[in-house]
Design goal:
Helices cover about 5% and strands about 15% of the residues. The protein contains one helix and seven strands, in the order ββαβββββ. The strands form two sheets. Strands 3-4-5-6-7 form a five-stranded parallel sheet. A two-stranded antiparallel ribbon has the order 1-2.
């Protein structure tokens, strides 16, 4: 496979396969951090500074963005299936109908983000910082949320069927109308969380003496 290397922000190298990516689209991302209907699958952009990017209908399947800075970015219908987003900075990102099926988001920081209708089926969110995130109607079927921090997160109407929430911190999280079929919540912190039936859980709360 032929690869072309180009420099982004003087500190990052993007390697692209000419068979999978469009050179003009890579150039647009590199220079303007903006790309619409981009073909960027298989992109190699580890530790890239892509802060405040705008990606509209971008194909980033199987891309490697580990350690990248995507904070304050806006992404509509972005396709991150099977992408490596581990340890990325995704704070304050705005994702609408984005596809993150089987994506690796372990250790990522997505605090205070808005991910509406995101499909995170089978995604790895182990140890992720998801404090104050909005995952309204998100699909989290079979997702690994082990030790993830979901404090004050909105999971209204989210589908968590079969998700792993072992050690997850859901303090004051909103699970109203969420689907929790085949989910073991016994080892999660649910202190003051709003449960699917709208009751308030005290599981995990420490009594003050």
């Amino acid at each position: 496979m032929i690869a072309i290397a180009s420099t982004l922000m003087a500190s990052m190298t993007i390697s692209m396969s000419v068979q999978a990516q469009n050179a003009e689209h890579v150039q647009s991302l590199k220079e303007n951090r903006t790309c619409q209907r981009c073909e960027l699958s298989g992109l190699e952009a580890k530790n890239a500074n892509l802060r405040e990017s705008f990606l509209d209908v971008a194909d980033l399947r199987k891309s490697s963005l580990s350690g990248a800075n995507l904070a304050f970015s806006t992404m509509y219908y972005a396709d991150f299936r099977d992408a490596d987003l581990s340890n990325t900075d995704l704070r304050n990102t705005f994702l609408i109908n984005s596809d993150l099926i089987q994506a690796n988001l372990s250790g990522t920081n997505a605090r205070n983000s808005r991910w509406k209708y995101a499909d995170l089926t089978g995604a790895n969110l182990q140890n992720a910082n998801l404090i104050d995130i909005e995952l309204v109607y998100a699909k989290l079927n079979g997702a690994n949320l082990t030790n993830a921090s979901l404090r004050n997160a909105s999971l209204y109407g989210a589908d968590l069927t079969g998700a792993n929430l072992r050690g997850a911190d859901l303090y004051r999280a909103d699970l109203t109308n969420a689907i929790v079929t085949n989910v073991d919540l016994s080892q999660a912190n649910l202190c003051r969380a709003t449960m699917p039936d709208r009751t308030i859980s005290m599981q995990g709360c420490t009594l003050i003496k």
